[in-house]
Design a protein that fits this description.
With 651 residues, the protein is an alpha/beta fold. The protein has 23 helices and 21 strands. The protein is globular.
Length: 651
């Protein structure tokens, strides 16, 4: 009895203890353990709780009574895969979407995700996911990013490091925009706090200095193309060898995200991307936003197809040289992201890794063994051996013969919990059905025009139906982001104020706050709304307040989102000054030179897009989020020559 109690205690030393979970044995399976380049035919792998407890030839491993037996005959068992550049939706996203993303990773054999852009509330989600309370990979999360908008001084960078380390984030994420002094302060403080830092290479920092300062992983091969002048032609092999040796000597690893970068550089026709079958599992509004983003990207006059091809070809050369030179390559895709669907994106990424000369075993190692070594201080996983975390993927074909066989999943085990193919397929079908329903609901949106007192036509879109009405101005900016607020019993009304978006624009200089307030009343009357909730945003916040003061009986509540105070307020003056500081003034000057030369004389929308691409990043704490802004330059009202007079009149 004492011996049995001792065994029970030992089995619970690695939390959480899964005492109630029956043992499970894979029998007669071909094991690819990933400890060395070998294959074990006809083996049994025994799992108890969250751990692998035995691996051996059939007949040499005793299977306990009551254990679940999975027949692995004619199948291959590999360690669970990792996504080392993943994104977890923030808690502000509907819970169902968050859980679906986590499941999509698992459905594709991904049992570990390193999330590289944290948000408040995600540490609680991590604890829930890692406890097994929901179907999810094991999560390791970076905190909110360090970038030119979130950091304004070396002291602030150091304080931010200490705050994130104390909060319990696993790592720090670097985005562009940091000065060298800010980056160095972050790096020195991170070493002192014992927290790793990963990410992009800020322009002022440069690849060589980032490696010297101990950046642990370089995401997207960031900095290499710039270091090698790789946008201009074939890279210099001598300088490439130097970059490889610098990386190897520093101990840094790379997370290439090759497939996504082809998309970002506009390599594929839009029709190719929209035909991806895995898009069926993503919300329709997200796919539409991706489609609009890519269409805008292809239309950007700064996109040079020849240069794009050169960059992508050089990225393959760089990855090949890094791998051949002994630099650790970690599997990562950057998803969910532009046509990069969680889990499914891995199967597109591995083909690019193979094109760079990596063998199937080396590709597998980048997502299993190498990841286990990276997280060696956190847990034991990444190979199939006793004591390892029971993260396993059962495949129908040999991935060492064809790495594409990684998509032939027969089942996935995450921390000892088995998800057979039947259960995975059932959940995938449910996610796809929900996505179709959402798309169908979108098709039922109502668009129209309300008429103001002076005859100006005001464009609106309604989403959903119900007794609760929520009215949201400047819908062309907010519709995609706020659509999830629609639910049974709630109707969202997105509208464009006069002079904006798709609404008519009478004399801009004569538009006043009074016009905006009376226009809102005209919209309410047109739609037959008795009482409404109002969402004030940016410069429209004041409109909502004044409307509520005039018509208090018609307003149930007001929610202000980043409202802009009067222009002459001290806060507004400092905010505008800070925004100007964040803008890449050199890029803005180059754009104005192109405009002065007549490049946009027949394409004012193109000028709007180019200017927006330079300036809008300054409005985001995370510059990467600027890519999510919809293409509003389709509407002449949003061109700077029209918006400028309007803003001056109102503010």
């Amino acid at each position: 009895m004492r011996h049995a109690v001792l065994l029970l205690l030992l089995s619970c030393l690695t939390p959480p203890c899964s005492q109630g979970q029956p043992a499970l044995a894979f029998t007669g399976v071909t094991v690819i353990p990933m400890d060395t380049e070998r294959v074990l035919d006809g083996h049994t792998v025994l799992v108890e709780g969250e751990r692998i407890v035995a691996v051996g030839p059939a007949g040499e491993v005793e299977i306990p009574d009551g254990a679940t037996v999975v027949d692995g005959s004619g199948r291959w068992l590999i360690p669970g895969l990792a996504e080392m550049h993943g994104h977890i939706p923030p808690p502000s996203v509907p819970r169902e979407r968050v859980e679906n993303v986590l499941f999509l990773y698992v459905a594709n054999g991904i049992t570990t995700v390193r999330g590289v852009l944290g948000a408040p509330g995600q540490l609680e989600l991590k604890a829930e996911a890692n406890s097994g309370a929901l179907v999810s990979p094991t999560l390791y999360l970076a905190g909110p990013s360090f970038n030119g908008n979130s950091v304004s001084s070396p002291g602030q960078a150091a304080a931010m490091v200490r705050e994130q380390a104390e909060a319990g984030w696993d790592l720090l994420k670097i985005h562009p925009g940091l000065t060298r002094a800010e980056y160095d302060s972050m790096a020195v403080t991170a070493r002192a706090a014992g927290i790793r830092f990963v990410g992009h290479v800020p322009e002022e920092v440069g690849l060589a200095h980032a490696l010297e300062m101990g950046q642990e992983t370089i995401e997207h091969l960031d900095g290499y193309v710039e270091y090698l002048d790789g946008a201009e032609g074939p890279v210099d092999p001598v300088r490439l060898a130097e970059a490889v040796e610098r990386t190897r000597a520093s101990g840094a690893a790379v997370v290439p995200t090759m497939a996504l970068w082809e998309t970002l550089y506009g390599i594929h026709p839009l029709e190719t991307l929209t035909a991806y079958p895995e898009l069926r599992y993503m919300p329709g509004d997200m796919v539409q936003a991706w489609t609009e983003n890519y269409r805008e990207r292809l239309a950007d006059s700064e996109l040079d197809p020849v240069e794009s091809r050169i960059v992508i070809e050089n990225r393959t050369r760089i990855l090949s040289a890094l791998h051949d030179g002994g630099v650790t390559v970690l599997m990562g895709t950057d998803s969910p992201q532009l046509f990069s669907v969680p889990g499914f994106s891995l199967h597109r990424e591995v083909t690019r890794m193979a094109a760079a000369g990596m063998s199937p075993w080396e590709i597998l190692a980048s997502g299993t063994r190498a990841v286990g070594e990276y997280f060696a201080g956190e847990d034991d996983f990444g190979t199939i051996a006793p004591g390892q975390r029971a993260d396993l993927v059962l495949l129908s074909a040999d991935p060492l013969q064809d790495v594409a066989s990684l998509s032939g999943i027969e089942g996935v085990m995450v921390r000892g919990r088995w998800h057979p193919k039947t259960a995975i397929d059932e959940r995938l079908a449910a996610i796809a059905a929900a996505s179709r329903q959402g798309t169908a609901a979108r098709a039922q949106d109502v668009e129209g025009y309300a008429t103001a007192e002076d005859g100006t036509r005001l464009f609106y879109t309604t989403v959903g139906d119900g007794p609760e009405d929520v009215v949201i101005p400047v819908g062309l900016y907010l519709e995609e982001a706020l659509r999830p607020l629609a639910k049974p019993g709630r109707r969202l009304v997105f509208y464009d104020p006069r002079g904006r978006g798709r609404s008519e624009s009478p004399d801009t200089l004569r538009i006043s706050l009074d016009h905006q307030v009376t226009d809102l009343e005209a919209l309410r009357t047109h739609l037959g709304i008795e009482r409404m909730a109002l969402i004030g945003w940016s410069g429209l916040g004041m409109e909502m307040v004044v409307y509520a003061m005039r018509h208090p009986d018609r307003v149930s509540r007001i929610v202000q989102v980043a409202p802009v105070p009067p222009r002459n307020s001290p806060h507004n003056e400092s905010a505008y000054a800070e925004r100007e500081r964040r803008i890449d003034q050199a890029a803005l000057e180059r754009l104005e030179e192109r405009s002065a030369a007549g490049e946009f004389s027949e394409d004012p929308g193109g000028y709007c897009r180019a200017r927006s691409a330079v300036t809008r990043v300054a409005s985001f704490a995370d510059p990467a989020r600027a890519a999510e802004v919809p293409d509003v330059c389709r509407y002449p009202n949003e061109w700077s020559e029209n918006l400028g007079p309007l803003f001056r009149a109102l503010l």
